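WARN  no MSA supplied for this record, continuing single-sequence
INFO  ligand: guanosine-5'-monophosphate
INFO  echoing inputs
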Amino acid sequence: MTPKKQRGQLIVLSGPSGVGKSTVIAELLGQRRDIYFSVSYTTRTPRVGEQDGVNYHFITRQEFERMIDGDELLEYAQYVGNYYGTSLKVIQDKLAAGIDVLLDIEVQGAAKVRRRVPEAVFLFIIPPSFEELSRRLHGRNTDGEEVISGRLEKARTEFKEIPNYDYLVINDKVSHAVEEIEAILTACACRVENRENFVKGVFSL
Ligand code: 5GP
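INFO  complex generated
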């Protein structure tokens, strides 16, 4: 029997552009329908195929700055010239209802969440090698050489943040990366602090 949770687990996932994060997340959410994926707010323009309210809430800089001023964001960061941020209210409501929440955010935002929500679990996803990351970015066929080398440079700086994360997931193969994340989430759910209700109920402590 799986005991009912008091609070949901906040799961923070970061990783460089081109690592295959979106594919891994889509696969994970397909298997774990009980996880809520937080749809971020951003000022960047939608890419082909992206939908407002599904991939992101696409808003103007003015609207974003209004959200900052109104203290409506759990965290936010500027990334390659655009704002990205997570709604505080949505996250609070889900966690309070015992629902696990997944954030796909970059390293500066993750550092802010670490300060505000230390009980969150922090996962960093990497490719099997730097060469493979470069190969994947070239394989997308969407960006020029300059954009790709900018992303690779950014990846090098992001890798320096790895020691601040709890777990490192290696995306050599999507199914393998998803398996590793599932194992981490299972371990989190078994933490004593996440099973206090269960202990109280069973042993009347
Ligand atoms: P992209 O423009 O490729 O969708 O995302 C660029 C980066 O922004 C990715 O590393 C992604 O994880 C990050 N990101 C997406 N949403 C948020 C957010 O709400 N907050 C922060 N800090 N980063 C985000």
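Residues 134 and 166 are 25 Å apart (CA to CA).
INFO  checksum written, moving to next record
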